[in-house]
Amino acid sequence: MSKPLIYLTFANDPDAHLELLKEESKRLYNALEEPKRKEYIEVEREESAELDEIFDFFTRNKDKVEIFHYGGHAKTDIRDRPIALTSLQI
Predict the structure, then answer these.
(1) Which residues make Cβ contacts (< 8 Å) with residue 53, sequence separation at least 6?
(2) I need a labelling partner for 73 at 20 to 30 A (CA). Which of 13, 21, 52, 83 fits?
(3) Under a CB-based contact definition with an 8 Å cutoff, are residues 61 and 53 in contact?
(4) What would the DSSP string read from start to end of 23-87?
């Protein structure tokens, strides 16, 4: 049986930098360290997420991702990608 996958993503904009985003990433990842160490869960973290990378990750792992967290800025309006969203069947 596969372990649930938690996918943590973050994106910061150098022109509108979110000062606490790195800290958020670190705290979330550290909070999940023990269940990960005990092999109850898998955790993937991307600190410089681009929209295409996120969609590629979901395409490869759509049956495993139980929790998705996104923190930060978005350069692209997610509504511009309705076909990709519906094909993921989240």
Answers:
(1) 46
(2) 83
(3) no
(4) HHHHHHHHHTHHHHHTTS-EEEEESS--HHHHHHHHHHHTTTEEEEEEEE--SS-GGG-HHHHHH
pLDDT at 76: 53
| HSE of 36, CA atoms in CB hemisphere, 13 A | 13
Query: From the centroid of its chain, how far is CA 20?
Result: 17
* pLDDT-based confidence at residue 80 (cuts at 50, 70, 90): low
Domain ranges of the chain: 5-88
* Residue 12 Cα distances to 8, 24, 38, 50, 74, angstroms: 14, 12, 31, 10, 8
Measure the CA–CA gap between 83 and 90, rounded to whole angstroms: 13
pTM of the predicted model as reported, rounded to 2 decimal places:
0.76
